[in-house]
Design goal:
The structure holds two protein chains of two kinds.
Chain A lengths: L3 E6 L7 H14 L4 E5 L7 H4 L10 H5 L10 E2 L6 E4 L12 H12 L4 E5 L6 H7 L4 E6 L3 H16 L6 E7 L1 H5 L6 H8 L2 E7 L2 H9 L10 H13 L14 H12 L3
Parallel strand pairs in A: 1-5, 1-6, 2-4, 2-5, 6-7, 7-8
Antiparallel strand pairs in A: 3-4
Helix pairs in contact in A: 1-10, 4-5
Chain B lengths: L3 H6 L4 H16 L8 H13 L10 E7 L2 E7 L11
Antiparallel strand pairs in B: 1-2
The chains are: A alpha/beta, B alpha+beta.
The structure holds adenosine-5'-triphosphate and magnesium ion.
């Protein structure tokens, strides 16, 4: 087996990378794939709490890299899904404790027995970002429909291309359809036109994301949630399924028309 | 692209503002030319070209445009028509 490494990153902080990583990882595992999520945000670990696994951490990524434990020992199995694992970040170290070569080595090892390795990257353009994209086969950029997040996404897309890890794919997170309809939020079609990049997901702004994070249960596992469906659809697109609908726009005619046009034109 | 409310009220929405500002912002972010330097570039270009050929200075237009993820500097430089007198 040779698994695929998917890195979730962004320019601006706080746009939803960790939320997306936890949900995409859970959704892929729910589809029956073997998945490992890696928290590459050394010093600011968060993926453990979003996945609800914080109480089971013994070893972390830096312990693996520095040889204090075997890779297997740092992999925490999910409570709900048998084939979902987390390798947590170290909390008391900084990004220089891990190098891009370390990340490549760890991922090459994981690829042998897993279908997908999902890496939660820190925001920004420094060492942490370099670490996170070094092993990537596919890079997903998360942004929000808002001026500074789009601007920073553009910068990161350029860097991903410069590292020859492109073409990057975009998740637009926290879309508020009411605001889009009254002309107070950039529509997905506008963001795509500006960034000239492929789209892989549209996720609504939804308070239930915070509720599910409070509980440590990714919303992707809630079959009744539309936001959960948005994340499940991203997972399906990652697996290569074609024609997966974009749920974030189902309520809006004008918006739907515009976006589906863009998607059909094979942006 | 105009929003629905924009179309009925004939008003520019804040999303339209955001889009227009981003369009300009990204074009400059992707190059090494800060927005405030466009004027200087325009003036220098005119002076270089004027050394060789007479330019209609007032109507020169220089702009950055986006073509996918690559940028293009478009210069439209009208020339002065020379009235040739009889041989
Ligand atoms: N679709 C959404 N709807 C509502 N809230 C969201 C959504 N996505 C993320 N959030 C909230 O936004 C906040 C930031 O999300 P998250 O931690 O995933 O961002 P991040 O990009 O990983 O941040 P950082 O750059 O600090 O690592 C969290 O409180 C999260 O619950
Ligand atoms: Mg994060």
């Amino acid at each position: 087996m040779s698994g695929k490494v998917i890195t979730i990153t962004s320019g601006k902080g706080g746009v939803g990378k960790t939320t997306a990583s936890a949900n995409i990882g859970a959704a892929l595992a729910d589809l029956g794939y073997k998945v490992v999520c890696i928290d590459a945000d050394i010093g600011l670990r968060n993926l453990d709490v979003v996945m609800g696994l914080e109480n089971r951490i013994v070893y972390d990524l830096v312990d693996v890299v520095e040889g204090r434990c075997k890779l297997r020992q740092a992999m925490i199995r999910d409570k709900r899904l048998n084939e979902l694992y987390l390798i947590p970040a170290a909390q008391t170290r900084d990004k220089s404790a891990v190098s891009p070569a370390d990340m490549r080595r760890v991922c090459d090892e994981l690829r042998k027995e897993h279908d997908y390795i999902v890496i939660d990257s820190p925001a920004g353009i420094e060492r942490g970002f370099q670490n996170a994209i070094a092993p990537a086969d596919q890079v997903i950029i998360v942004t929000n429909p808002e001026v500074s997040a789009v601007r920073d996404a553009d910068r990161i897309i350029g860097m991903v291309e410069a590292e020859e890890k492109g073409p990057a794919q975009l998740v637009i997170n926290r879309i508020n359809l009411e605001m889009v309809e009254r002309g107070d939020m950039l529509a997905a079609a506008d963001v795509l036109e500006l960034l000239a990049v492929d789209l892989i997901g549209l996720v609504p702004d939804d308070q239930d994301v915070i509720v599910s994070t409070n509980r440590g249960t990714p919303i992707a596992l809630d079959n009744k949630s539309r936001t959960g469906e948005a994340f499940r659809n991203i997972a399906r697109r990652i697996t290569g399924e074609d024609d997966v609908p974009f749920v974030a726009m189902e309520n809006s005619n004008g918006f739907l028309g515009r976006i589906s046009k863009l998607i059909r034109s094979g942006n | 692209m105009k929003s629905f409310s924009d179309r009925i009220l004939g008003k520019r929405s804040s999303a339209d503002d955001a889009k227009e500002r981003l369009r300009l912002l990204l074009v400059h972010d992707r190059t090494t030319l800060p927005p405030g330097k466009m004027e200087a570039l325009r003036d220098e270009l005119i002076s270089v070209i004027s050394r060789h050929i007479e330019v209609d200075r007032a109507n020169v237009q220089i702009e950055m445009t986006q073509d996918g993820r690559s940028q293009r500097l478009l210069a439209d430089i009208p020339l002065k028509t020379v009235v040739r007198r009889g041989e």
